[in-house]
Amino acid sequence: MKLGIATVCLSGTLDDKLAAVAAAGFDGVEIFENDLVVSPWSPKGIRDRCADLGLTIDLYQPFRDFEAVPPDVLAANLRRAEHKFDVMAELGADTMLVCSSVSRDAVDDDDLAAEQLHLLADRAAERGIRIAYEALAWGRFVNTYDHSWRIVRRADHPALGLCLDSFHVLSRGSDPAGIRVIPGEKLFFLQLADAPRLRMDVLQWSRHHRLFPGQGAFDLPEFVRLVLGTGYAGPLSLEVFNDVFRQADPNRTAVDALRSLLVLREEVGLGDLPAAPPLDGYAFAEVVSRDAEETVAALGFRRTGDDVWRQGGAALRLRAGDDTRIATVGVVSTSPDDSRRRAESLLARPLPGGAVAAPDGTALAFEAGLPPVVEDGLLTGIDHVSLSAPFDDVDQTALFYRAVLGLRPEPEAEFAAPFGLVRSRSAIDAGGRVRVAHNVAMLRRGDWAPAVPDPQHIAFTTPDALAAADAMRAAGAKLLEIGDNYYDDLDARLAPPRLDDLRASSILYDRDDDGEYLHFYTHILGGRVFFEIVQRIGGYAGYGAVNSPVRMAAHRRLRLGAVPS
Ligand SMILES: O=C(O)c1ccc(O)c(O)c1
Ligand SMILES: [Mg+2]
After folding, report:
1. Residue 39 pLDDT > 60, yes or no?
2. Which residues are annotated as a binding site?
3. Which positions ≥6 away from 153 have C-beta within 8 Å?
């Protein structure tokens, strides 16, 4: 099954785009007309370039506002089409996408639309070209796939078929199950795009907010299964209009795009990715910083090797450096080799020593076993790791971790922090032992907010948060102090047991139907990394997101050097 992408997905000019598409490893492209019109290359030149890069040209698009028009407009449209057929002949493209009309010239007449598309298909067939008719979700009269199918069926021409675009079908809430009645040979092309669930004008939604599969809210595996069930054997091709991708490095976007398609192909039971081996928790996390040792020692860790610090079942590696960050996340895999092969099949860059690079720059290491448990400590292991990525990259980054590690996404949270809204998303493995979270500012504008990357943190598990906080403070740990307003509000909302103790120890608290969550934080190291200690009681599965604004405000106060009063 060929994998393709429309040039409109990527930033730059046609030469940038084609180079990026080929380098990522796609098989083919849809040439978007505007990219060709503005290119200095002739259509023959573009054909040669694609051939040199090993890319097929699978579609020429879009041809607009053709059908159901008065005779004079039809004549002009056919003339326009003949010109495009000339271009396609030079390009070596054999399928043209015709999208449903938005023109004022069009009338609401399916017979006329079918008759005129039949005429167009006749002209196309003479040139060895096929017409793929696509219902735009905002088409004037034809805006659902079932309507476009009725017209194609009525036109009844072998050179006329359908283009199905997941966005147009799913954005309108059409039931995709009807796809099953369309014969596969009448499906000429399949375009794939995901999108976040938004309530807005469908054209704006489509032109600005489409995402690659797996990054939005649509059920693309279900959609693709239905299409493949018809016998469709053409390319799976991405068509994503997105303001961010239009500005971002096309090489990076193309890799993220292909990864999303590889994951989707696996989700529909095709392709040959090595399955994600089950995970058995965290092996270690590696932190680069100038000054972590003192903090870590006060939390109760003991140095057990050159750079290795352990406590209970938790292991840290500390490396000295100015660029404070979580450098490596080590997970325990039941088959580290398979985990690595899967990561590399999903286009992760291999690193020396067997780890791979995630798109956010973090290394992901796969270890064969859990760290040996050293003598009892306050901590029993790593509960979760919270990484950061710029808002524009977070969807791709989160998809990478999810796909490589075989994690399941958890519900997203959004909360108001001192410098704007923050979105928190996370994913968890089947065994509930590996949780990866991403917290990102949803917008960065102006220079009032501090110009620092979003912080990252490592959360350790403890069976007794109150005892741990006391012991750590006694050992000199600098823990985040939380103000009284928080505890007064907490009392009003949840009236937790031992409120006074929580208050005295600056422990945050959350509760849901499944259980309770007690957690506290260290100060921030190097402006970037901090630690959290968490106690989960019962089946609480969240991260205390409700408390994040409190934590952020307290960290902010520390950054400013303000003394709590
Ligand atoms: O936004 C558009 O105009 C447009 C054009 C071509 C497509 O295939 C499509 O899905 C949308
Ligand atoms: Mg489309």
Report:
1. yes
2. 134, 165, 191, 239, 384, 457, 532
3. 186
